Amino acid sequence: MNEFYQLGYNSLFIVILMSFFIGALLCVQIKINIWSPWMPRFTIGYAMREVLLLEFASSIICIILAGKVGSNIASEIGTMRVTQQIDALDVMGVNSANHILLPKILAMVSAVPLFVTFSVASGIVGAYVVCKLGGFLSMADLILGLQHCYEGWHLWTAYIKSFFFAFIIASVSGYFGYTVRGGSIEVGRAGTNSVVVSSVLILFTDLLLTNLLMA
Length: 215
Description:
Number of strands: 0
Shape: elongated
Helix content: over 70%
Number of domains: 1
Distance between the termini: 37 Å
Order of helices and strands: HHHHHHHH
Strand content: under 5%
């Protein structure tokens, strides 16, 4: 629960904030660059919903978390390694990997799928606000677009993908931190490497899961 609070709850604000502005920006960009008089006005809400569900609420949010949470995990565990705290656990007969890494993995796997719900909800609120203030789309058209041809499987796809992405963030970051050798410079390098590798693996896994789940 302590790891859930530190890694999950403390990241909730940035997820909500980013999703709010992305939902608003998607509506503005679709209105400016895609919409035409030949298209129904509800297309703006429909396209925004699909982008939120299929990619942003899972993949992009997890890439952001890889930078915030992943580097934190790698740096924390790396510092424990270079200060010989992990060696002390091993000497006492404690399974250091299980004791340190497993709670972080469980916390991320539990928290990140919940972020999908907050991300989608916050993105929709952002779309409501910008449409209300901008006046370029009525609430009736936005709601119609959000409801048009809705498939519940798209939301479940976001949940499933976020589960895998959360495991990647925690395990990859934990690996780089756990295997640090050297001093403070190596700890910083481990944090950077964990973000890069996690982001690449998230994108690669996103490609595979999209083909499997959406085929």
